[in-house]
Amino acid sequence: MRINDKRIKDIQNHSVRFDTYEDLSEIIEVAGEADYVLLGEATHGTSEFYKIRAEITKKLIVEKDFSFVAIEGDWPSCFTVNEYVKGYRDGEVKEAFSHFNRWPTWMWANEEVLDFINWLKQHNERTHSQVGFYGIDVYSLWESMDEIIFQLEKVSPSLVEPAKKAFECFEPFNRKAEDYAVSAAFYGEGCTEEVLNVLVTLQQNKFKYDGSNEQGLNIDINSLVMLNAERYYRAMAKRGPDDWNIRDGHMVTALEKIIATHPKKAKCVVWEHNTHLGDARATDMAEEGLVNVGQLLREKHGNSVYSVGFGTHRGTVIAAREWGGTVEVLPVPNARMGSWEYLLHEAGPFNKYFLFDDHNRELFNDVIGHRAIGVVYNPEVEHLGNYVPTRVSDRYDCFIHVDETRALTPLFTKQAVKI
């Protein structure tokens, strides 16, 4: 029997077909026992990934008492949505979403996420819950500085001028991360000392912060973003693994800080790309010296972590052909022959999922190409760089395959170009 024939047969024997969200109940039962449920995505622009992820999350919140959702998004913009769902902020939901204004805006400002946030707001009101929605990414250096000044004006006015003075170090770079990265990395013109001085002052005055509406947490995470974003941008210009590792390490630290603020044992759902949530040790990332959120959490928390990967055989996706470029509805071509997604389709052209366990893990832990699509995507050449060598059952605890997918619907981006 040829190796691909055997793989297809194993997929048919160990996968479960699903046609509705209710068919995913077995995943809820198994994942619900964990403290960290990591829900991935193979792209940042696929409607089905976002919808399925939202439906699983709803069940985990309602049936398994999960405490908050953390996403691959900026803290300041997500905290605005968090304030909305918890009743700290008045206004309409689209007003809260308007703070997702950094490219690629469609990653979180889309109809699929908006539907989930409407549900979460209603759930919190109906059940008197405080289930949160937080961003744990590292990119928002300038936005976090702005937010710290805004918060200090309310809680500790005497610290405003010293903070502004320290932040003047960043002014020559006109909020352009790439300019700061080059200057700090190669000319020694960084602002590390200024950032550290502000952070020490903030920690020394932490007792002054009002505990209501998560004011202290807001200052704390924005301070962490400042520290790690400055490190990230310095490392970015030098290339190598450091910038990636700083970013994913930051996301884990941010998660831990959020959990520490909860009065009881918190359980969280994390929404990020497969590349962050699938264990890096099961891919070629390890050879490049890269770690990720999935690996770091597994190393720290073991079986308390449950990771779910997502993939598709074909369809459409929202992306751009270059960084900062025009948003397009792009085709996702049939998966490359021999890849994980190709075999899943060959095993039956319908949606399916796997629960990897001691009985079947060995069957799916040989190295195979597994598709990954980012916000920049060129479908014509995806076969050259969009497939990650992966031991799938070591990378995830569960895998969800949607055979044919479609692009999500952005909220604020002008009508996406049709291809």
Automatic annotation (TrEMBL):
It comes from the Bacteria. It holds the Pfam family Erythro_esteras. SUPFAM superfamilies: EreA/ChaN-like (SSF159501). InterPro entries: Emycin_Estase, Hydrolase/PRTase-associated, UCP036794_erythomycin. Gene3D superfamilies: EreA-like (biosynthetic domain) (3.40.1660.10), EreA-like, domain 2 (3.30.1870.10). This is Erythromycin esterase family protein. The lineage of its organism: Bacteria, Bacillati, Bacillota, Bacilli, Bacillales.
